[in-house]
Amino acid sequence: MKISFLLHNAYGIGGTISTTFNLAGALADRHDVEIVSVMRHRERPEIALDPRVALRPLVDLREERDHPLHRRPAAVFPAAEYRYRQYSELTDARIAECLAASDADVLVGTRPGLNVHLALQGPERSVRVGQEHLTLDNHPPRLRTALRRAYRRLDVLTTVTEADAAAYRRKMLLPGVRLAALPNSVPDPVLPVADGSAKVVVAAGRLVPVKRYDLLIEAFARVAAEHPDWQLRIYGKGQELPRLRQLVEDLGLAGNVRLMGVASPMEAEWVKGSIGAAASDFEPFGMTLVEAMRCGLPFVSTDCPYGPGEIIRDGADGRLVPVGDRDALAAALLELVGDDERRRRMGRTAAENARRFAPGPVVARAELLFEEALAARRGDGHRATGGGLGRVLVSQGFAARDVAYGAAGRARRMLRRARG
Question: Quick check: pTM over 0.70?
């Protein structure tokens, strides 16, 4: 097959970029694969891309940031999408031209706004696959309304967890669209896995409020009080950095908690630790969990929606604790810090269990989805329309609620503007 991925900006850093590069590189073993990057802001990608995967940008911001069409708002990319302000008439035109000229057997969108482009403008000869790397419930009501209209024209819609796939089946009526969970994959480790002897807890990700690094630092204060020879290393950058630095200082943890900045690749840092940790309020999947576990680290995480509960097997390869519960998080960390044998045993189990997220199994699932959709497209073109009256009524109920929420939100914004 010829497979083409449509990506927001392949030249940055992020979970969607990483997992798209991973999947594209693994598919390149047997297929002709390219990545089309809507935006480009630098000469080379920050994340290494398999040289067998072609990469081409549509809009080079280094030269076209002030293009007249780039100053006008986008008409196709949905206004309720998080990245909307970065899109324009120029991106609308370039994406439309790219899709019209594509000879790909399979076209894959990688975020809601690009999935809409694919659904509305993708050529009928190609299988159109929308990937969701966030979750349905995390989308604002206005976006959910736009997606209901557009996603019906997709052939396949994938989510990164079974829980989110179930939410789409329950809350959206998408007749004829194949809905399936396709988890993110993590490449096989290059370095020997951790042996559990280092007195280091490792965390990694964007330093943003939803990740709750403040809660993790506060929980680790208890660990440091009982085991002062242990250290917490946090990798990443983001808006929370100044506040986290201040918190470390206020708690007197400068000798135990280190804010390490960005490290890429992270594998060399994971294997220097013995435990992985996360305290997120929300996690669509949890790439860092899988990365750490593949490197032999048992993982302690909040049991937040949606990913951790589908990745960690509580008590076997890590621990799950209630969201926002600092004491439970501290107790779970202390449980592993204080028991060398259990920590090492769970680390070995983590490395074994996380193999289900290796490129091989994930790519096999992706290939099967693509091949079945392509066979249906080349057959009689029939698209199933099942679902039943009950499902129709449930979907209509959620749609009506989203419309009401959207209208209420617009009314509140108009009222605030009037008062201002």
Answer: yes
